[in-house]
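Before the break, one more example. Copy the sequence into your notebook; we will annotate it together after we see the structure.
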Amino acid sequence: MGWAMGAPGDKAPLSGSATIRKPKESYGAIARGTRQMFMDLVAERKPDLVVWEAPWSIEAWFADCKRKGRPQNGMSVIIGNAIALHLMGLCDARDIPWQEVHRQTVMKHFIGTARPGGREEGKKAVLQRCHQLRYLPDLCKDDDRGDALANWDMACALWGGRIDKELILHDQGKMRFQGDD
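Here is what the structure looks like once it is written out:
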């Protein structure tokens, strides 16, 4: 599970990823791992906002199964929703505001398209954009960390009032806002 934290004006926020469940551990380990990661991250400073990727709804998952003509792993939907519920409870218990963001909205914001192809193409495009913005070291290939940074970037734009003076557009070079001297 990836994480990113920092103020909206930060050029490169702190970020990383953690394994919240080891192979062969029970699903209960996911809740324990999520809680531990959350507690470690908020131990020094209470965040102004916590943002995470919204899990698939059961309706969307079912529609995807029908579209593909075969059942998909239903446990992933249950786990995603359980993690989101757990994070809501952790935030509410500490009076920390929270928001869910939808993957397609984040992708449109961060890489310029909501559906860049398959899952792997999307992960690759997010990592490429993170490297372009210098959010990640050049050799970092951690796609969970990249996804967290994309969520952070969108959260800063939506709720942090961050408007960059210089934008690096998707394969189009640099652009400056009018009136910036």
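Residues 165-181 have pLDDT under 50 and may be disordered. The radius of gyration is 17 Å. Try to locate both features in your own notes.
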